[in-house]
Amino acid sequence: MKTPDERMAEYLGATPIKYRGQIERAMRKEGSPRQAIKAKCLDCSGFNRVEVANCTVILCPLHPWRPYQDEKGISSTPEARGDELGDETDEEGMSDPPEAGETA
Ligand code: SF4
């Protein structure tokens, strides 16, 4: 039987490198709750930010808090969009909803 650390290492090994650190910090409770929500939504959506933005699971408790909501309506494939948004190299260029008490 695998230990929790072995299971986490296995999971992180299957996580895209770009998001691995972000996911690991969330799992180790090293980031903020907002970062953990982002990590969960990315995991849930196959690490596709546009899929998170266009998520239709309104009964998910994280739905109102999910990141990338300003990308709603954008197709999830670069071919359909005809632009570069599918290249997820610009992590910091995407804005998140404000945290409680924070102004947008
Ligand atoms: S809000 Fe959507 S993307 Fe985020 S965890 Fe819930 S179902 Fe998944």
Main features:
104 residues, 5 helices, binds iron/sulfur cluster, mainly alpha, 40% helix, single chain, disordered C terminus, globular
Structural account:
The chain is globular. Helices cover 40% and strands 0% of the residues. It has a domain at 4-71. The chain is an all-alpha fold. It has helices at 4-13, 17-27, 33-44, 49-53, 78-81. Residues 83-104 have low confidence and may be disordered. It has five helices and no strands. It starts with a helix and ends in a 23-residue tail after the last helix. The longest helix is centred in the middle third of the chain and has 12 residues, at 33-44. Helix 2 packs across helix 3 (33-44). The site of iron/sulfur cluster (SF4) has 11 residues, from helix 3.
TL;DR of this structure?
With 104 residues, the chain is mainly α. It has a domain at 4-71. 40% of the residues lie in helices and 0% in strands.
Bound molecules: iron/sulfur cluster
Q: How helical, in percent, are the residues?
A: 40-55%
| Rg (C-alpha, Å) | 15 Å
Instruction: Please describe the biggest sheet, giving its number of strands, its sense, and whether it closes into a barrel.
Output: none
**Structural class by sheet pairing and helices:** mainly alpha
Shape: globular
Poorly predicted regions are 83-104
Alpha plus pi helix count: 5
